[in-house]
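Show me a record, fold above all:
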Amino acid sequence: MRFKTIVTAVALVAACYVANCGALSVGQEAAQDAPKAEAKAFDFSVFDVPEGKDAAFYTDAFDKIVKYLNEDAPRDNVDMEEVFKGLGGAMKAIYKGLVDATDDDSKHKCMNAFQLYLSATAQSSDDPNAVKAIYAEEKAVGKSKERISYAYYFMVMSQLRGDLSDAELKALVADLTANVNEFDPMMVAQLAQTLMRANPKLLKDDVAKIVELYSGSDDERKKMIAKSLEGGLRFASLLGNEMKVEGLYLDKTEIDWKSYRGKVVLVDFWATWCGPCVAEVPNVLALYEKYHDAGFEVLGYSIDDDLEALEKFEKERKLPWKTASSKLSVEAKENGGKEYVDLSEYYGVNAIPTMILVGKDGKVISLEARGEELKKLLKEQFPDVK
């Protein structure tokens, strides 16, 4: 849950930098009358990292680049493709310079630099083979199983950015299954979930093979991942079928899923701390107001641990629908009540928002009912509403 990924926080520096660019530009639009500070040029020289230096030089270079991107780099009028190219080149030099280091700090930064090298390469090139070449090189050297896993992950994710045919998707998941014991189990789980979401009906049988392999393992972590992937298989099987929904609302009353039959229902897995989830709220509110009287309903399923924050959010946003709580539902049995499944785990929801649209007959219409897609789907369900 909570958008798990094998990439560490520092490997998201580049993505955060892009997000900061967007956030700042919005802020400037909102404050057009405010005096503008003089634009400062991006210092690309921070990416000038030569070869042939010692480990101390490369660890310092790594820290300098991360600090600059997080704190000092200008956010306006920057060619992000050039930033990613510069970042990729610098991180390649750093990781190569630290690859034989023995102290923990250098080894840690070597791995982080390698991740940033992969991430920046994927961002700066539309060619999925750019990352594939890094994977091939690491596999040929064969020194680090961990680096091979990271490279494989980024390679597959880069390929998924393209418009892949069914045959190409099948080839990706078949390759993952064939080499499943060569990679970190958490990475396998993330890729399996991502691949399955790309085409659930096509790939669920292939992912089931990974579940079978991991379920029979003596490794407890693999068994746990198998359980999570089983949830993903349930999720992949939802289209056209009925959905299991149970638990407690935030007011501690029980969900009566049967009472929703005859309505078109949006089941929204979300949390107050999830930015994209919160960003969807205005869209859902507008659609609720338009279609509610015609038979549209929303059931929020929050995975918040902080119930006070959830209650505060509901009141401040004046949400007109009821919200269920995974925390309350799971804790019900511990408090002497009924036992409910945690729906986020039951359906392997490892990224939020996950928004599922259920038809009047109780069968799932869409597993990706967000934004413009939700508008289109509701227009189809309620053609008489103008």
Remarks:
- Residues 1-34 have pLDDT under 50 and may be disordered.
- The longest strand covers residues 264-270.
